[in-house]
What does this fold into?
Amino acid sequence: MRSRAPAPSEPAQGTEPDATRGPALVAGPEPPRPRGAGRGARRKGRASAWRWLGVLPFFAYTTLFLLVPTIELIVKSFEGPKGSFSTANVSRLFSGEYLSAYATSVELSAITAAAGGLFGLFIAYGAVHGRLPAFIRPLLSTFSGVAANFAGIPLAFAFIATLGPTGVVTSLLNRAGLHIYNHGFTIFGMAGLSLTYIYFQFPLMILIISPTLEGLRAEWREAAQNLGATPAQYWRHVGLPLILPGLLGSTVLLFGNAFSAYATPYALTAGYINLVPVQIGAILQGNVTVPNPQLGDALAFGMIVIIAVAVTLYVLLQRRAARWLP
Amino acid sequence: MAALELRGVRKQFGEVVALRGLSLEVASGELVSLLGPSGCGKTTALRIIAGFEHPDGGELLVEGRDVTRIPANRRNMGMVFQAYSLFPNMTARENVEFGLKVRGQDRARRQRRADELLELVGLGGRAGRYPNELSGGQQQRVALARALAIEPAVLLLDEPLSALDAKVRLQLRQEIRDLQKRLGTTTVYVTHDQEEALSISDRVAVMSEGVLEQVGRPAEIYRDPRTPFVAEFVGTMNRLEGKLAGPTSVLVGEAGVPLTVQAGHERAPGEAVLVLIRPESIAVEEAASAAEVDSARARGSLGGRVLAFTFLGPVTRLVLDTDLGPLVADVPSIQALTYASGTLVSLRVDPAGTHLLGAG
Ligand SMILES: Nc1ncnc2c1ncn2[C@@H]1O[C@H](COP(=O)(O)OP(=O)(O)OP(=O)(O)O)[C@@H](O)[C@H]1O
Ligand SMILES: [Mg+2]
It folds into this structure.
């Protein structure tokens, strides 16, 4: 089972002599064209224009629906009620319920990214390297594909039916003498919401970390073992450093996934838990005493900043963690 | 006492029997090749020695001590894999150091040792490079240095050159052999390339379908194959079926064409035999006409015709249609310059170059 999935570290297989490898594989700048190559040269120029045509829709799309709205959003964040420049909305983010909404959102996202990520990592590792029967892998990836996208009202309903005050699992636990609702647990609280998030977080982790784990070659583990390393030493010096870039990237993705979730917390806690997307939703729907759409823009702007910080952190960490990546 | 001994080692993967009772002794400082076709169980045998697989039966002894149940990381065996086995997150030096690091050796000492070994494999100046900055041949050199760094009880190599191109392969195999001799490391070398096995081994163990066919020095294996499989697998061999008519006479084929063979075998007249002849033991002479071939026959030669020829450098390999049936013969290339497809020849088989095996 040696798949050629993008490895964290597929070493370039070169054969001697040295000159045959490396730079030749990297798409460099076009070699200088001889003068007077005439029609041939012109055709080449046109060909490169054609090459760009393929990705044109992508750029058009991202410009229209990502870049333009983002700029609009940032501009609006700094507008007062009359359209003049104002930092009033942005400064409101740093106090009261909005600051606490960011804190709760970051906390919930960090916890579920870490817990769901770890859980997903172990399952993915078991599936990839655990010598299980062949049918397990496709089964797991199908489940993950479905579960990672299972969110919103159906997911909330599923968890209420399972872990709600009269849910199936709750009653089973009650019968076993474990009354979780007497110990402060409620599906409508932070713990319940975290559990619900983890339901879509860990399958997403399985999906995105599996290629990285598949890139861990059996030879590396065996070579380490052969040289006298214990499993712990293998993980510390070889396994973990190799999957770390993938692990960091996946965790950031999971963080963002939880950070922007709206339908699930709204359906489950009816806005009882103070999260940024729920606040934005309330403003957009006009469920506030004083309508102020620019405040919604400012809140969204704050989310973009937090995600940007997370991604920057990830890039810096990855550079440090993987100087050996080609 | 043997440095390494396999006793009746068996291994099965589901329905597939990979090893059916493999027994082999390797003396201290000796290089033994496991040679055989794809799927015959060479890698399985090596992985059992390294401890990556556990045998279903039999024993493995190192210096007389049973290590069958000792886990791989405590066997002190150095393994060189086919390719891609260097840790990509470590430089060449760090790779070589790894075995010493996990043994708790202090930094200065293990770095000195790593640099020594890299020097030894000709990579002194490349200690700071990451594997993806090294060519395939350089990577295998580092892998060799890494395996040797722990001063292994046995060095194990699994087709370490098969991912390299021909020229590097030839050079590196000689370097491996020189280094192995110099350090006196007991070595098991897996390959499916008979030329490679014959050229670098003290002894060659020829395997087929999970059993050892023959173990012996390279010249012995080449000159005196004990089974039809070894005869065909090692080098090129002509193989004729016949019946023994006298101590040195075999009647070949349906037609019973007489052929003189070497004496000294223990087979009785009337017995069905296989006659094995190396291409270099057939002397070929060009004949101007069919009449000339006939007169050569009268003098005890055989007649034939060239079907095809391949230039191999110093010799040219001929495929002949002869009185004995199709034969392959090697002649000096100088002599073969005038040959064409259809050229008539007379030929003689050197009795000293024949070899008898029981048919069946
Ligand atoms: N892990 C495994 N699971 C199932 N079958 C296996 C396994 N490893 C080896 N086999 C089977 O055992 C037999 C011997 O395999 P092995 O890899 O030892 O052959 P080999 O001589 O090294 O061949 P090659 O020259 O192709 O490397 C083969 O039929 C192979 O399919
Ligand atoms: Mg093999």
Remarks:
- Chain B has two domains: 4-232, 237-358.
